[in-house]
Amino acid sequence: MPDTLQNKSSLGIMFILIGMVAISVNDMMIKQLSGGYPLHQIVFTRSIIGLMFSLVLVQIEGGVSILKTRHPVLHIIRGLLVVVSNMSFFVALAVLPLAEVTALFFAAPLFITLLSIPVLREKVGPLRLGAVVFGFAGVMLMQRPWDGAVAEGSNRIVLLLPVLAALTYALNQVFTRKLGATTKASALAAYIQVMFVIVSALFYLVAGDGRYAVDLTEPSLIFLLRAWTWPAEGDWIWFLGLGVNSGLVGYALSQAYRLADAATVAPFEYIGLPLAVFWGWMFWAELPVWEVWTGMGMIVGAGLFVFFREQQKARAIARAEVKGRY
């Protein structure tokens, strides 16, 4: 592997590790605030701060001129996908254990593999397809379809929200890879923050007074629709941390997928799972039940198999191309 390519891969891995640590801290802080503030207020506040952080990075990487784009529609679609992914994930986070939501979200690499067939016209062999089926069996196990208590009320729907988050995140990564070839990481992060600000502001205009949460009893819907309130003095540090952290997440993930191919950096995203278990145990004394532990293992095992199989295939193709030249 040429030195330049090796260096880019190493930088991509470094940025994905930074991003995943920042994401786990972000999830922990949002769950901490979910009992007293609406989701759209948390998102609006962190995105305003995150946008300021992103604009500083824009200035460092070339100034406001790098915000110009020839693909505004693709950036809008990408932004909306990230918003749907985040909102779905965080609504589930208000009700479910952090580790369980995170594990279900890690179905995203499996979705990326499936999406690569129609979107990127890639051929996916029976081994990788078998791994995808195995991983989704882990998702089904975590849904616990035999458990009547889980099926009551909206719990079943809440369990599906991280899966929706995973699907929209996978679609977002396809757009990130496409747009990252011509757009700086700081610009990609800034566009995302702007989209978050717009969507959360619209939420405030429609539901900011809490009118739709008056008679609700479902915690996830209350988190989504309760009225905005001025943060308590001790909570400002959480909001400020969320804002700075949000800017860091957007930049680190965009940079990781710009510098290195997905097969190189994506396996390192799984560091987020033990971090989620740690935060859940430390702050809320949450430990996964056996179905969740087993499902976690199946999802992670399937995802890692898919990535390593893709790398193996890519190396075989590269060797064949080299032989063809000589």
Report on this structure:
This protein is mainly alpha-helical and 326 residues long. The protein has one domain (8-107, 155-284). It contains 14 helices and no strands. It has helices spanning 3-33, 39-61, 72-93, 98-105, 108-115, 126-143, 148-151, 155-179, 185-207, 219-225, 236-259, 262-265, 272-284, 290-325. It is globular, with a radius of gyration of 20 Å.
Strand/helix succession: HHHHHHHHHHHHHH
Helix content: over 70%
Summarize model confidence as the mean pLDDT: 83
Rounded to the nearest angstrom, the distance between the terminal CA atoms is 18 Å
Number of helical elements? 14
Instruction: Work out the radius of gyration.
Output: 20 Å
Question: What class would the helix/strand composition place it in?
Answer: mainly alpha
List descriptors.
mainly alpha, 326 residues, globular
What's this entry about, in short?
By secondary structure, the chain is an all-alpha fold.
What is the topology?
Elements: H1 3-33, H2 39-61, H3 72-93, H4 98-105, H5 108-115, H6 126-143, H7 148-151, H8 155-179, H9 185-207, H10 219-225, H11 236-259, H12 262-265, H13 272-284, H14 290-325
